[in-house]
Specification:
Strand content: 5-15%
Order of helices and strands: EHEHHEHEHEHEEHEHHHHHEE
Helix content: 40-55%
Low-confidence stretches: 295-300
Number of domains: 2
Largest sheet: 8 strands, mixed
Length: 301
């Protein structure tokens, strides 16, 4: 069991950080969402309010619960202030090892003495991140959430070489407390889901580049042929092709040539066509909604 009086700090107010903060706040935890960007914090809080408002309209959340969730949520731009005395730290900053290590290193000495440090990495080494705080390494665990967090039930818990059994038990209990189902993975590049998703998305981009089929038809094949809720190109647009490219490059380096990034992904990232967040990826978007197109081929990207 976990104590919902414990303070949870979520670092990074991007798409994933917003969802994770919502999950904790709506489950009754005092939640501090931290980011150095005031604009990101305002946007994150607005997005959480929208999720709650939509939930009320659909009858999935009561007005009282929605208000309580917002009361549980606080935003901060100072990690040092937020981390002091916290029982849980969940970092979900950019997928760069040095950035994640810097956050953990700054926060760890300020946390409660038995605090758990979780990293929401989809591919990076939990062991390496933990090595930046050797005195706390046994309490560092990977806690990989999925997007959109308020709809996706799975959390991958990743054991680094130093992660203790107690840390895993406590992390599993926390997942249960926020209505998530956890699996435990021994550290390996790409874990389970990221490794398979990266390979599938990369292959879909190779097919698009080669003109095997249109983007829409590739996505339709996976949705209807394999009962996936979203096609691999749609998912790449949602995740962000910059994030997908970063993961692929890491997997290519650690696991070999089968993860070599498709050149079309590299071109798209260089052009700023990152997906929904920029309004243009494989598909185009306006106000977060996809603009209908037909005959999509690599040449029109």
């Amino acid at each position: 069991m976990t104590n919902k009086q414990e303070k949870v700090v979520v670092v990074g107010a991007g798409l994933m950080g917003t969802g994770i903060a919502h999950a904790f706040a709506s489950s009754g935890y005092a939640t501090l969402l931290v980011d150095t960007s005031a604009e990101s914090l305002v946007r994150a809080k607005g997005n959480i309010e929208k999720i709650l408002t939509d939930g009320v309209k659909l009858g999935k959340v009561s007005e009282e619960s929605a208000q309580a969730s917002l009361t549980n949520l606080t935003t901060r731009d100072d990690l040092g202030e937020a981390a002091r005395g916290a029982h849980w730290l969940v970092e979900t900053v950019s997928e760069q090892l040095q950035v994640k290590m810097a956050v953990v290193k700054q926060a760890a000495p300020l946390l409660a003495t038995d605090a758990i440090i979780a990293t929401n990495t989809s591919a990076l080494s939990v062991t390496e991140i933990a090595a930046s705080v050797p005195e706390f390494a046994e309490r560092v665990v990977g806690m990989h959430f999925f997007n959109p967090v308020h709809k996706m039930k799975l959390v991958e818990l990743v054991r680094g070489i130093a992660t203790s059994d107690e840390t895993v038990v406590r992390a599993r209990a926390l997942c249960e407390a926020i209505n998530k189902t956890s699996i435990v993975v021994n550290e390996s590049p790409g874990l389970t889901t990221s490794r398979m998703s990266a390979l599938l998305g990369n292959e879909a981009m190779w097919m698009l580049q080669e003109g095997t089929a249109t983007a829409e038809d590739i996505d339709t094949a996976l949705r209807l042929g394999f009962n996936h809720p979203m096609g691999p190109l749609e998912l790449g647009d949602l995740t962000g092709w910059d994030t997908r490219l970063s993961v692929l490059r890491y997997l290519h380096q650690t696991l070999g040539d089968k993860f070599r990034p498709c050149p079309l992904i590299i071109k798209m990232v260089a052009a700023g066509r990152l997906g929904r967040k920029t309004g243009h990826g494989v598909y185009r978007y306006e106000d977060g909604k996809r603009v209908p197109q037909s005959g999509l081929k690599a040449s029109v990207l």
